Amino acid sequence: MPAIPDVSVIVVAHDVRDEVVACLESVERHASPVTYELLLVDNGSTDGTAEAVAAAFPAAEVVRLPRNVGIAARNEGLRRAYGRLRMFLDSDARLTPGALPELVAYLDSHPEAGLVGPRLVYEDRTLQLSARRFPPLLLPLMRRPPLDRFFEDGRSVRRHVMADDRHDQTREVEYVLGACQLFTARAQSAAGELDPRIFFGPDDADWCFRIRGAGLAVVYHPAATVVHAYRRSSARTPLSRIALAQLEAFARFQWKWRRERARLIREGREMDARAQGPGGGQAGAAE
Fold first, then answer.
1. CATH of domain 7-279
2. How far is CA 167 from CA 64, 75, 87, 178, 188, in A?
3. For the whole model, what pTM was predicted?
């Protein structure tokens, strides 16, 4: 029986052959000394994505789905994962040197944490705001044309993306973007599987809220850096099929958490207060 790897890296791809190869190459190049398994779930690609990954990474397990089922395709990876930790990594994300070992070390030394997210940067290495507060009810409309001209830099959106906060300290947060999330097998067991009704969009918030509901902390840890292209294609084409699917997913998310909304927002304010207090307070404070 093969040794249990430190991390099961789960990547979902749909018609992004070159992009996902670059993503997996970054894992191969920068994971050491962390041991890992690669799980690629192909969401019905027609551009040879699955074949390219199988050829370039013969040790990877490639799961081919007949159609695009959205972010819930990650469940296929979760069902096959046997690493003691699991990672969601977007196909447009790339690890940098030391990032994965740093995230693994954080979870290994902080048993109160169930999930940790790194500092994300754009391809030009400028900061990408990836720690978030509970999404406002009208968030998708405020961040899409034509309303984004009035609201993108407004108070509600800035508060949601934590533009008012420091991003150079480790702290507990409400959720982190799903571009890169490392979590424990215990957290996965508590959270179950991703909600297939949330096709794309607030799946990262839903996942983190479920882990927090199990009494485990979600942590932003900027000592690790991951490059994320972050296309936001649905925002650029607000009437496209993917944009409409995201709006539907957001509505389902808000309805799902409607009874917990007040509690989650209150918990977020408590996290902010701890982070602003002496020593920066969080599950495992800034280090």
1. 3.90.550.10
2. 38, 30, 22, 17, 26
3. 0.92
